[in-house]
Structure formats: C-alpha cells, structure tokens
C-alpha cells in the first residue's frame, strides 16, 4: 500500500475512533472496531479522571463521560504523555468551551488549580536554590521558589469537593501560593493582595535584596509607613521562608 494511501487509512481510522457516529470506517467488522473505540476512550477518560479527581467528583457519571467524550471528539491532542493530556484538557476548557448545565461555574478555575498541583508534583527544583534562614532574610538575595506557583482566582476552588460543590466568589479574590514542600507533598497557603504583590515583585526580580523590596513596596502602597511595611514584610517573609516558598541562592 502506498504511503499516502496508508496515511489516509490511518487518518480515517482515528477519525472513526474519535467520532464513530459521524465518521464511518469501512472494511473492518464493527465488533472489532468497538474494542478499539472503547480502549482509546477509556484511556483518555482514565488520564483525565486521574488528573482532575475533584472536578470529576462534582459530576454524575453520565455528565462526566459526556464532557470527556466532547474533549475526545473535538480537541486535537498533540502528545500521548499523561501530563500533556491533562494540559490539553485544560486548554480545551479555556478555548471556547461553553459551560453546560452540569458544569460548576468555577469549572475552569478548579481545573487549572488541579493541573497546577499535578505540574508541581513532577517539576524540577532549580539547582541554584537553597533554603533561606530567617536570620538571613535582610542580607541574602530573595527568590520565589521554582516549585511554587502564585495564583489568583475568583472562587475558593481549593475547598471544592463532592460534599461542598456550591462556592461563592470571594469579594477580594482568592490569592494562593501552591507549592511542593520538603516531603514532596503539594500544599497551599492563602495570602492577601499585599502579599501577592510582594511575591510578584520578588518573582519578577530574582535575587532582590530586602531593602530594595521594601523601597519598591513603599512606592506601591504609600498609605503604609516604612516601619509598618518593614515589620509586615519580615513577618511574612519569615513564614514563607520556613515553607521554602521564598528561598535564596
């Protein structure tokens, strides 16, 4: 069989596997095709369910399978790897997907939060990072950990669960840091808007010194005195350095 013809057969076969109702495949008994249809879909559904267990728990089985089926049919995945499939599912939800009746209104935020947890679980820590002692906060370069993510959502998605599906948007937003601790467990800490601003400054200025950070924060929030800011920064940085969210090199 010529290469071009073989490739067309492959494409027709995969089109049928993904969307058998609209893409027929001739020459093979349907009983045999059904085995492949079930195998491929079950693999994808298993990957998505493993990556988004909380999101899945908010659906009945029929609605969940309908959602995954829509992803399987409509989205063109480019990679077979587990993490990449979960990222492709997130891309599917964020690229024109219209919420259905069964979908929680915070669906995209929750999916992103769960994907971050998965991504952080396998992320590599930067080789030049090391723990920051509390006594060195004012004298050492400050860095945002390579295995921590700063997140902001409208809904408190970290508390979503099968028995807690009804979430209300937070008045001042939901600011979080999700990070991998020294035992390689994924944790989160809720932060306020001012701490989020401080972390953004450190993240954008790797190795920033305490005095420079204090100066930039004082310019950003002039309603606080420098003494108030210095005290607040020290307390916050102490907590974050103990969690190894803030590190040095």
Structural summary, described in words:
There is one protein chain. By secondary structure, the chain is mainly alpha-helical. It has nine helices and five strands; from the N terminus they run ααααααββββαααβ. The chain has helices spanning 3-18, 30-51, 53-57, 61-74, 82-94, 107-122, 193-204, 210-220, 226-242; strands spanning 143-144, 148-153, 174-180, 186-191, 246-247. The strands form two sheets. The protein has a three-stranded antiparallel sheet. A two-stranded antiparallel sheet has the order 1-5. β3 (174-180) and β4 form a beta hairpin. The model has no long low-confidence stretch (mean pLDDT 91).
Low-confidence stretches: none
Main structural class: mainly alpha
Q: How large, in whole angstroms, is the Cα Rg?
A: 24 Å
**Strand segment tally:** 5
Strand order across the largest sheet: 2-3-4
**Terminal Cα span:** 59 Å
Alpha plus pi helix count: 9
Oligomer: single chain
* Mean pLDDT value: 91
Overall geometric form: elongated
Task: Produce the secondary structure layout.
Elements: H1 3-18, H2 30-51, H3 53-57, H4 61-74, H5 82-94, H6 107-122, E1 143-144, E2 148-153, E3 174-180, E4 186-191, H7 193-204, H8 210-220, H9 226-242, E5 246-247
What is this entry, summarized?
The chain is mainly α. The protein has helices at residues 3-18, 30-51, 53-57, 61-74, 82-94, 107-122, 193-204, 210-220, 226-242, and strands at 143-144, 148-153, 174-180, 186-191, 246-247. The chain is elongated.
């Amino acid at each position: 069989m010529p290469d071009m013809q073989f490739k067309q057969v492959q494409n027709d076969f995969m089109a049928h596997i993904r969307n058998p109702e609209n893409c027929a495949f001739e020459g093979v008994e349907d009983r045999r095709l059904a085995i492949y249809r079930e195998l491929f879909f079950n693999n994808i559904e298993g990957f998505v369910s493993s990556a988004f267990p909380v999101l899945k728990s908010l659906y009945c089985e029929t609605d969940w399978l309908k959602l995954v089926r829509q992803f399987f049919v409509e989205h063109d995945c480019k990679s077979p790897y587990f993490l990449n499939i979960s990222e492709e599912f997130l891309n599917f939800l964020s690229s024109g997907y219209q919420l259905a009746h069964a979908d929680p209104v915070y669906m995209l935020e929750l999916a992103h939060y769960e994907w971050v947890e998965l991504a952080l679980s396998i992320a590599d820590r930067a080789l030049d990072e090391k723990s920051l002692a509390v006594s060195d906060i004012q004298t050492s370069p400050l860095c945002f950990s390579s295995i921590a993510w700063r997140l902001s959502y409208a809904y408190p998605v970290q508390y979503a669960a099968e028995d807690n599906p009804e979430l209300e948007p937070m008045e001042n937003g939901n600011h979080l840091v999700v990070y991998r601790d020294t035992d390689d467990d994924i944790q989160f800490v809720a932060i306020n808007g001012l701490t989020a601003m401080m972390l953004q400054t450190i993240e954008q200025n790797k190795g920033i010194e305490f005095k420079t950070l204090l100066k930039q924060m004082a310019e950003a929030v002039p309603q606080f005195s420098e003494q108030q800011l210095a005290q607040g920064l020290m307390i916050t940085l102490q907590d974050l350095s103990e969690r190894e969210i803030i590190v040095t090199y």
